[in-house]
Design goal:
297 residues; six-stranded mixed beta sheet; 15 strands; 9 helices; alpha/beta; 28% helix; globular; six-stranded parallel beta sheet
């Protein structure tokens, strides 16, 4: 099978498409024929060597967490799916023609494989950070980086919970966020003053890592109700960094429910072939994404 690997840490040029052995699932795992795999910021941060403390990597290594595909083989103890079933979820080294999955759920009938691959990590993250920041119905949440994958999920889930949302994003994504029910402004000079004119802010999420933690604390009035998934320096300001995944299976179940209920839809910004993984990383690192970037296998 074909698989994307890297043998050293560095830029997108370290990624190579190679022939590899088909993995065999162990107990509690299954293997899928990958139809699509999502590109996450986590992927290129690991590729650069940024996450070695929490996620040690033994080279050569593959990349990819989220995927959607068709079950090829199940490991010992797996009884909830059969060969041929379409699933989506999280696994290991999913930039490949076949991959092992550790968390899965039947793929929503409303989604294609390409769309479904974009949901697992971002919905888990969105559910987790909304709970951790402690925002409730009737309050207003400020979301920095609201148009990306996690931001798109956060805005829609928050609105379904009767939470008002103010989102910051680039000029091209203003109408998109308004369509999701958010008040919006751009993140250029004077953004904090524009947010103040839009109304009171009870809590804030930093999903972009743009170095604005202090401004978010000033807007909210306390660091206790500000949380980031992208700025490792946030604890210097008394702000929590959320990075450890929670209950992935529960998030997949909830994602499927939200999709079926018409509450949640995450757009696909662009698709790539396996051989274009490096280009996908370049685009992901550049930011300004509306929704998800997906590798189609």
């Amino acid at each position: 099978m074909k698989k994307v690997i890297y043998t050293r840490f560095g830029g997108p040029d370290v990624l190579h498409l190679v022939d590899s052995e088909v993995p065999r699932p162990g107990p509690g795992q299954l293997r899928i024929a990958v139809r699509a795999a999502a590109v996450n910021a986590f992927d290129w941060r690991v590729r650069e060597g940024q996450k070695l403390g929490a996620h040690p990597v033994q080279l050569p290594a593959g990349l990819g967490l989220d995927a959607a595909g068709v079950v090829e083989e199940v490991g010992e103890g797996v009884t909830d799916v059969e060969v041929g079933d379409a699933v989506f979820g999280e696994g290991n080294e999913t930039y490949a023609e076949s991959a092992l999955m550790s968390h899965w759920y039947p793929m929503p009938a409303e989604l294609t494989f390409v769309e479904a691959a974009g949901y697992p990590s971002v919905v888990e993250t969105a559910l987790r950070v909304l709970d951790e920041v402690g925002v409730h119905a009737g309050e207003t949440l400020l979301v920095s980086g609201a148009a990306g994958g996690v931001g798109s999920a956060v805005v829609q889930i928050a609105r379904s919970r009767e939470i008002s949302v103010i989102g910051t994003a680039g000029p091209a994504n203003q109408d998109y966020l308004r369509g999701l029910g958010a008040l919006v402004t751009t993140y250029d000079k004077g953004w904090a003053d524009r947010v103040r004119r839009l109304g009171r802010v009870d809590a804030a999420l930093d999903l972009a890592g743009a170095g604005i933690i202090q401004q978010l604390v000033d807007l909210v009035g306390t660091p206790d109700r500000v949380l980031t998934t992208a700025d490792l320096d946030a604890p210097k300001f008394g702000v929590r960094f959320s990075g450890a995944a929670g209950d992935v299976h529960a998030a997949l179940v909830e994602a499927a429910r939200l999709v079926a209920d018409g509450v949640l839809r995450i757009p696909v910004a662009q698709t790539y072939k396996l051989a274009e993984a490096g280009a996908a990383h370049i685009d992901s690192q550049a930011g300004h994404t509306r929704g998800r970037r997906i590798i189609v296998v």
